[in-house]
Structure of Amidase, hydantoinase/carbamoylase family:
Amino acid sequence: MKARKGIYMVIEEITGRIARDLEHLKQYTATPGNGCTRLPFSKEARQAVEYLKELMHEIDLEVSEDAAGNVFGLLKGEDPDAPCVMMGSHYDSVSNGGDYDGIAGVICAIEVARLLREKGIKPKRSFVAAGFNDEEGMRFGTGYFGSGAMLGHRDVEYTKKFCDKDGISIYEAMKEYGLVPENIEEAAWEEGRIGSFLEVHIEQGPVLDAEGVELGLVDCIVGIQRYMVTVNGRADHAGTTPMDMRMDAVDAAAKVISKIADWAREKADGTVATVGYINTVPGGMNIVAEKVEFTVDIRSRNNDNINDIAARIKKALEREVAEYGGSYEIENKLTITPVELSAEMLDIMEAECKELGYSYRRMLSGAGHDALEIGQNLPAVMLFLPSKEGRSHCPVEFTKYSDFAKGTVIMQKLAEKLLDK
Ligand code: HGY
Ligand code: MN
Ligand code: MN
């Protein structure tokens, strides 16, 4: 019983610190009062990173910020050359998002480092707490910029390729933020420096909350493909132009868009497809649209499904623009395959959940995460915490601070095992 009492004390303390930190970080948003908007290379990102660095310094971690805007806190092991155990998540957010997506996982990682310090643990291999930049891809439509750069998957050409809605490229945004885009490849860690990656994250879906389960042990993360589609037509007068003389980009785009969700439903295996952004140009009520831009985000555990839906979209676009002699462009913004997470680490977490009496279940992640990018190359694992009513990517996103504390303790137990292997 003493052990149980001890853990409750610890949980309470951890809960208090996590609450303090996440409450503090809430202020770093471009939309106060309307959710968290902390876009990459923004003032809010800078403020959040400075706070994370302060927390890392407080527990004597070796703090660094890399050429991609990632921030790391190193707790050095006896053998600093042994592959490290890295734990973290992203500090950026979507627009008008929630206060926990990503950033809570960074705080939990710093908390694990603090607990290791407090226990006076001298690990064989190093522990690194990581805060990644631009996981969401919200500003430039891409995704996993920071964790991708850490794996050497980003170069200066990539930073010039993608722009935000104001036409600012990643390249220009990096310079404005004080980074040197030409140095982006310096963010890559050499092969063998990272041994495993652990990520605590809110579920962002309804499963754990609906089932009343405390922890989600994630065994697979879906693959994702993202596109920006532009359908070209011709601007004309909406009143005088006969229907058979129009080159109406909206008419064509709408016929394609209206099919996409059903193509995902037909797979009947959890495959999803979303058109989250549509923009007509010039956007006048009495003007036949000259151009329509829309995004597509396709996800599935089965990569063939993603490829099939992407192919059907292209075929439908060909067909619809041919009807009126129009044209289309389709820009691939992200392609990443599904990843199966580490069975060994999942088993360790499951044993710790049983030991501490936490309810848990294994589950799929329909959301992409830094673990999806990192898991392409390295053993990775994720631990989900319940999202109230499954809501996320919106201001009402909520997860209890005590749930983050439970996730932290489980991850600490896993980290201690990995650190001494
Ligand atoms: O889009 C996602 O799945 C994640 O929130 N970046
Ligand atoms: Mn996230
Ligand atoms: Mn997100």
Observations:
- Residues 112 and 412 are 5 Å apart (CA to CA).
